Amino acid sequence: MAVSFPTPRRLGYRLNWTGALAALVVLFWALTAIIGPWFMPHDPGEIVDFDFFGPITDQLWLGSDYLGRDMFSRILMGARYTVGISLAAVVLACASGVILGMTAAVSGGWFDTVLSRLFDALNSIPSKLFGLVMVAAVGSSIPVLILVLAVIYLPGAFRFARALAVNINTMDYVTVARARGERTPYLIMNEILPNMTGPVLADVGLRFVFIVLLLSGLSFLGLGVQPPYADWGSLVRENIGGLPFAAPAVIMPSLAIATLTISVNLLIDNLPTKIRDRSE
Amino acid sequence: MSSPIPRLVLGRLGIAAITLLIVSVVVFGATQMLPGDVAEILLGQSATPEAVAGLRKAMNLDQPAIMQYGSWLWGLLRGDLGTSYANSMPVADLIGGRLVNTLRLGAVTAAIAVPLALSLGIATAMYRGTAFDRAVNACIIAVISVPEFMIATLAVLVFAVWLKWLPALSVNSDIDSITQMLRVFAMPVITLLCVICAQMIRMTRAAMISVLDSPYVEMALLKGASRSRMVLRHALPNAVGPIVNAVALSLSYLVGGVIIVETVFNYPGIARLMVDSVATRDLPLIQGCAMIFCIGYLILITVADLIAILSNPRLR
């Protein structure tokens, strides 16, 4: 029953080809977010084309946008916002969710009850609506976006981690540790967490996809990343006027979002069961 | 032995009520975070301090937040949603007609989605692992991994730009004939269908498979029941509860989908009203729309839970 923590010796996991391909795409976008902006052929704010919604040419690899700016540079720059904001939000949400979830499972009692009830209530606010109301109330800036996205996905991370931790909490080795007189922080970090790393990481990946989707949706509604900066969702919004001409300016950022989210989903789906399976 | 069902149902309804209360606190609290004073924002920069003070008093802004929350909640219970800042009309009047439009959109979508998704879900569960099942699954993964606005833009690209069958915008004002109605509803409904069906097929398939994997269904197969008899007579009656639960849960995805779809297609529903009111920071309108959406969502997930309780024969 116990899921073993992958020690380096046993890390000989094999991905099937779908998973490997997906991992490559994810790696590509991660690298783009970090080093992509150094390879931009033009400044993302500079108007380089006298025509708007220009087609793909040798000069402008992905055409030009509604002001005649280089789409390729803007997508490279947008990767930093989409991936960066989502990553920050997912780390925040999952780290706090997992820690709270484990604490709730180990300590139980009123702490567990109150937290579970509260997060259940938060969970029954539709995510897009919650984002809409919060952004309307406090205005949209990147720290606010990260915080709002993290708060929205915290209850899910909490519930997932708590369910895993409750199962592990009944294991003999946890009882032994408790009988030794270990305190809650030790139990959490040394007994519970190492035994749920795999499933938690898979959950982080899925939640990352949800956050990318919500962020893009908010940006598409004009409530996410604000000009002059633009993530991929904002790029679609800016260039939606090019839709009747099927301009690359509106298709390319959509493709960028789709490749990222589909690859993360496929990667998680094709992870070796050793990593992915819950310790049920 | 008395049945535990009434207690469970009452408990679930109680949780729903408490949740609604917490939701209202969140919605009200969020609008309190607005930097600056509402009265000053409304009156603009040239307002005299007396005018601001007068408006603050008229709008009860001088009372503590908890009192304001109390009177807002009391108004909400009586169906009084306050007055819009932007055009000083009662919020309830602004929402009324729009709500009907949104409900109509949702109803049309649900009427098509439910039979379509149920038959596909059951079929994929029956023919698990075949090429058909894998193809449907691939489509589902593609649809649930992309944002709703992408499906909407793709629908515009295919049906309005390339095939030129339908208009890109939908305006609900002049509907005289069936064909006109079809043209108005087609694009938003197609987009919502993709979103809802993907979720519904996935959940129906999962619910059906868990029943098909149970020993009594295997027993039916061993007795020599045909595949269709095994699925329809033996498995389906026990899968009805989980499936209806899945249907209600998937319909709750309508709430998120409708926000994007109404914006993309310019559909005059409550979600676009809300997005527009976010742009003008019309707080009473945002609060009213948000509460309506949350109530709708809560009704759907509570119904899903109640069905799960009622359909569990072990509780009867």
From TrEMBL, chain A:
One matching Pfam family: BPD_transp_1
Similarity remark: Belongs to the binding-protein-dependent transport system permease family.
Cellular location(s): Cell membrane
Database matches in InterPro entries: BP-dependent_transpt_permease, MetI-like, MetI-like_sf
Chief place where the protein resides: membrane
Protein name, entry field: ABC transporter permease subunit
A cellular-component GO term for this protein: plasma membrane
Residues of the ABC transmembrane type-1 domain: 79-268
Top-rank taxon, per record: Bacteria
Keyword terms of this UniProt record: Cell membrane, Membrane, Transmembrane, Transmembrane helix, Transport
Organism: Paracoccus aestuariivivens
GO BP term (any one): transmembrane transport
Transmembrane segments: 20-40, 81-110, 130-154, 204-225, 245-268
Membrane topology type: Multi-pass membrane protein
TrEMBL record, chain B:
Keywords from the UniProt entry: Cell membrane, Membrane, Transmembrane, Transmembrane helix, Transport
Listed SUPFAM superfamilies: MetI-like (SSF161098)
Bilayer topology annotation: Multi-pass membrane protein
Transmembrane segments: 12-34, 105-127, 139-162, 182-201, 239-265, 285-310
Domain of life: Bacteria
Gene3D superfamilies from the UniProt entry: MetI-like
Stored PROSITE patterns: ABC_TM1
Domain ABC transmembrane type-1: 99-308
InterPro entries: BPD_transp_1_N, MetI-like, MetI-like_sf
Annotated GO CC locations: plasma membrane
Chief site of localization: membrane
Stored Pfam families: BPD_transp_1 (PF00528), BPD_transp_1_N (PF19300)
Example GO biological process: transmembrane transport
Compartments in which it is found: Cell membrane
Family designation: Belongs to the binding-protein-dependent transport system permease family.
PANTHER family xref list: DIPEPTIDE TRANSPORT SYSTEM PERMEASE PROTEIN DPPB-RELATED, PEPTIDE ABC TRANSPORTER PERMEASE PROTEIN
UniProt name for this protein: ABC transporter permease subunit
Organism taxonomic ancestry: Bacteria, Pseudomonadati, Pseudomonadota, Alphaproteobacteria, Rhodobacterales
